[in-house]
Write a structure and sequence with these properties.
binds adenosine-5'-triphosphate, binds magnesium ion, six-stranded parallel beta sheet, 11% strand, Rossmann fold, 8 strands, alpha/beta, globular
Length: 254
């Protein structure tokens, strides 16, 4: 790992980048995943690299939605496995969600590496690896439509951090409630999902786990109330305003 001095103003961002680079070196992350990270970094910069109010309210709504689900599934790709494998396993345990490995750029070797990483971090069951339980989502072409019959296919709620717009749309078309983490509030994924957490997944995954833990003591009526109050379009528009306000602040030099 490159030596990054603690005093460096961009130390956090650089350490996250290092995770992706070692994920790439260890066969977890696709080349395209590095580019996706770069796009995310740019938006994170514009957001001021902090978890804003709108992200916090999306996290709360996401927690309520996961707790209300009949079957929630967390879809894991290479970037997520490189960035927060421990947190994924923790979220799955906390909420009785299933974990499915689902790659945009399908590759068996990479899939194996992701499974190994998740297992090393405590995952027991990982779906998406058994050819006998393959199922296909309609409304999408290519390998991306292949999901697990016992996982995403059967789920009512799917958590897809750092997902592509086409797949998000396919999941919505097949009737799933979609929760995503995406630093770009303008992406198709952000605009298509039911609940969009506009934040760095490395900052907000722990917050989601914490919210799930706290809200698990509440009854369904309270959880439904939280969801009813949440408006994703309005919340996305607040995230865009957060960027605008941050830029206005940063543009005052004199
Ligand atoms: P879409 O297909 O949804 O229109 P896109 O083609 O612009 O999006 P993709 O590469 O398909 O982008 O998806 C990756 C998304 O993940 C990007 O929007 C990027 O901002 C976001 N992203 C990358 N790294 C992170 C991260 N660490 N936390 C949260 N989001 C991230
Ligand atoms: Mg895309």
């Amino acid at each position: 790992m490159a030596l990054i001095p603690k005093s460096h103003p961009r130390v956090k961002s650089l350490l996250i980048r290092e995770k992706l680079v070692s994920g790439f070196d260890n066969g977890l992350v696709a080349k395209e995943g590095l580019l996706a990270q770069g796009r995310g970094e740019a938006f994170d910069y514009l957001l001021g690299e902090r978890t804003g109010k709108s992200a916090k309210s999306a996290i709360k709504a996401a927690a309520a939605q996961i707790l209300l689900a009949k079957l929630s599934v967390i879809s894991v790709n290479g970037n997520v496995a490189a960035l927060c494998p421990k947190e994924i396993v923790k979220l799955a345990k906390q909420t009785a969600s299933k974990i499915e490995v689902n790659l945009f750029y399908s590759n068996e070797k990479r899939k194996d590496n992701i499974v190994k990483t998740l297992k090393k971090n405590g995952a027991k069951e990982i779906l998406g690896t058994n050819p006998a339980t393959k199922a296909t989502l309609s409304g999408i072409d290519s390998a991306r439509r292949i999901v697990d019959k016992n996982g995403i296919y059967a789920a009512d709620v799917v958590i897809v951090p750092l997902e592509d717009g086409d797949r998000t749309l396919a999941l919505r078309k097949s009737g799933k409630t979609v929760i995503t983490f995406d630093l770009n509030p303008l992406s198709r994924t952000s605009q298509t999902a039911n609940i969009t957490i506009v934040d760095n997944v490395t900052r907000s995954m722990d917050l989601l786990i914490e919210n799930c833990k706290n809200l698990s003591k509440k009854n369904n009526k309270t959880l439904e109330g939280i969801l009813k109050k949440f408006d994703n379009k309005k919340n996305l528009s607040n995230s865009i305003k957060d960027i605008k306000n941050n830029l206005t602040k940063r543009s005052r030099f004199a």
